[in-house]
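TEACHING EXERCISE
Course module: macromolecular assemblies
Task: Read the component lines below, then compare them to the predicted structure of the full complex.
Student: A.B.
Group: 4
Components provided:
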Amino acid sequence: MTPSYVSTRNPCKLCAPFGATLAFLGLEGCIPLLHGSQGCSTYIRRYMIGHFREPVDVASSNFHEQAAIFGGKSNLAEAIFNVVKQYQPRVIGIATTCLAETIGDDVGMILRELSSKAGNVDLPALVHASTPSYHGCDAEGYHAAIRAMVDQLAGNQPGADHLALFPGMLSSEDLRYLRDLVEDFELPVIMLSDYADRLDGPTWDTFHRIPKGGTPLEQLYRLGGARTCLELTSIYEPARTGGGLLADRFGVRHVRLPMPIGVKLTDRFTRELEAISGRSLPYRHAAERGRLIDSYVDAHKYVFDKRAVLFGHEDLVVSLSAFLAEVGMIPALIASGGGNAGRLRRAVLSAAPELEGHTRILGGVDFAEIEEAAVQVQADLLIGSSNGYRLSRQLGVPLVRVGLPIHDRLGAARVMHVGYRGTQQLFDRIVNALLEARQDGDPTGYTHM
Amino acid sequence: MSSPKKPDIETVREDLLRKYPTKVARKRAGQIVINRKTEEGVPPEIKANIRTVPGIITQRGCCYAGCKGVVLGPTRDIVNITHGPIGCGFYSWLTRRNQTDPGPDGENFMTYCFSTDMQDEQIIFGGEKKLAAAIQEAYDLFHPKAIAVFSTCPVGLIGDDVHQVCKSMQEKLNINCFGFSCEGYKGVSQSAGHHIANNQLFKHVIGRNDTPPEGKYKITLMGEYNIGGDAFVIEELLDKCGITLVSTFSGNSTISAFERAHTADLNCVMCHRSINYVADMIEKKYGVPWIKVNFIGTESTAKSLRKIAEYFGDPKLSEQVETVIAEEIEATEPIRQEIHERCQDKLAMLFVGGSRAHHYQDLFAEIGMKTLAAGYEFAHRDDYEGRRVLPSITIDADSRNIEELAVEADPDKYSPRKSEQELADLIQNGMPVKGYEGMMSQMEEETLVIDDISHWESERLIELYKPAVFCAGIKEKYAIQKMCVPSKQLHSYDYGGPYAGFAGAVNFWRDIDRMVGARVWTYIQAPWQKQDYPALEAELVHTGSSEC
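Instructor-supplied answer key:
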């Protein structure tokens, strides 16, 4: 049994405002603004840029001592006006930090007052989420921001019969792929939030104060008319997600699915798309599915019974576990810094019941605890973020980098996880990591593996 | 290839200010200055170390970042515990690239991130108990020589007394345990955090061990943080010269070295901003003078070594220093000349830190590159204009909140290393005892100096000037490169380095040479290569400078 430590040593989670910032970056023309001291914006920008290698603008209300004592109302107003003047954003996404939350600033009220006093200043859309970092992790912040967008921006404007897709915290390439996949079913889609292009864009041949891309506000105004909302989470309850609120407020049919990783979970996702669209799986995706299964067959001898340690965001590790289970690998240790072991266990065993009794599941843990547990499970490889590198060195087993953060490899935004295509890439990487380890560790140096 | 054009400097300044609301523009006007010195060489006044306006996207970090990340971060044998919610600890975990050499068996806690990971419960009921338990836990796990605790924003608000907790844990565990009230909202930048960190080191650590190390010429290096291994290079150089390094603040450092720092006979200050006040305090309390040095650039390195030798006044040392310099220059000079051919007259901009924007100009100058604009992220007026302005710096509410220690000569340990007369003579001969002329004094006339440059201003400057290289940090890097201008990270060195000393200079020149000449830029059409380049209304002057 892992001892329960007081302090968190080498965390396996980020703070809530990070997730909210990421969600806001997926709105077209949005500048995220953190209500708190400037260090939060700076740290979060710094970290996000390290992962995406793209420009990230995050404003701050720059609390100093007085604001911390007397409240941050005037700082927030000033910040909003200055952001408007410099960037002319279409929307400002405001997330609170632990500082603003501790002193109890009522951001909603401040914004209402501001809007009524704005006079002839043309204010952009303002949306705010409550994201104290002493509560939950980055995934919580992400969902809080998505829910806030639905709460404060979604409308029921006519003219749409689309699918609302709430993908969760995935890579830019995942988001691009999901959009293509859904559109191949000839389903119009509104994806919230879509930071694919903003956080993985081309070089500029013209100046952009705010990089292109993101979900347009107009689409949010029509969101309430969606025929179905597909939300990719098996962890977050409808009471805490954007999809749940969309269902409550606009009566939109709400379907929660685990992130589609592996054949089984992707089948669940595409079957849902078939049902909604009335079309069968388009040929090129059926072909991708076929190739994926073919590769499972080709490589079963390499992966069968291989033991993996998984760590990262709960929704990601849940789906990764189901995928590993279906190829005959054993996710011997499934860990996440967020949440608690109870909810993670329920979600894992619901997605992959065959894992019952074959895995150890740790929720709300740090890398110190993951390391202690990992040395017990005779792992053949690790699957998780760059922060698992230390463990990889310690155990002498490869690390397949997935999720966020990946700050020691190029192309974090282009790492794929979902769908038949994403699974294929992931599977190839996993198999090749195992082969490479075997080859490197072998004295003969075989070149046929 | 386009023919880049350089716009008129006054017009650029006005352009940068035009976008701001009147009040903000007025404030920024004091921080965006054209370097026009008087006949005596006195630079114009610049507003610095003042608050960033809310909503202006700044490079600056917070007090906690300066305290935990910069000053204490590089010391390997202190267990650093962040008292607060998880974000602050996470973001400061191995993100600064300071290196350390613990040796085969040495302690190194730098790869760890310890946090009390405060939850709702601690915010409501207080976090002192959890902090005490976390300190106990760190002690049980590692038995370190010292434990330091760093406060984040909520800690000050909920009223946790970290100092009291540390004091009682120190008594209980019988190790040095000290806390820092470095809440993120304090001060105007990380500079406040440096000050808070250094004050505590001065109070709790320096002076605890009076046994000096062996060595004839004993110095400390202050404000050198061993980014990319810079301190290793300097250590090796000093060693070759026969100079003993008692302690470095705080690159490649240990708490034991800090404890006897006052046994050195000279303090050498690299980053004036982050530590000059500690050098002052050590001089007052222990009688050790300090000089400003700079080991960035071959000429500056040679000059700094010569100054140290001259201070000790031993011809043998001077001889050895000259031998070392001659050897090193012989190796670096051909490389410098070759790169100079390719890089000369290209333009550089540097917006970073509290000393780097100054020091790195030397490296650029050595390969013929011109600094067109520069500024610091968190420096004060004295770092720009020189220490002569110290008496005239206004103390505002933000600086008043940072404790100024009252220091007196230690009745037992004060021992002036040089007499008043000796010091006066050294100064007379050009030795910068307690002296720093600042960045602007060295910069050319009609260059642009911008304090706390905003994200928006950086982008606009690039748009207008298209420099050959823009030095900043990772936050700016990718926005700059989107516009076809290479960006050199001077915080992390783009994970390269070292750049200090002679060997480091070669690394830097090579990196810059490769960067500005990289083939990738030919695949990109820069915004200003398009017909509809949004020019300023002012007259454009052709300079034929940078290429893209």
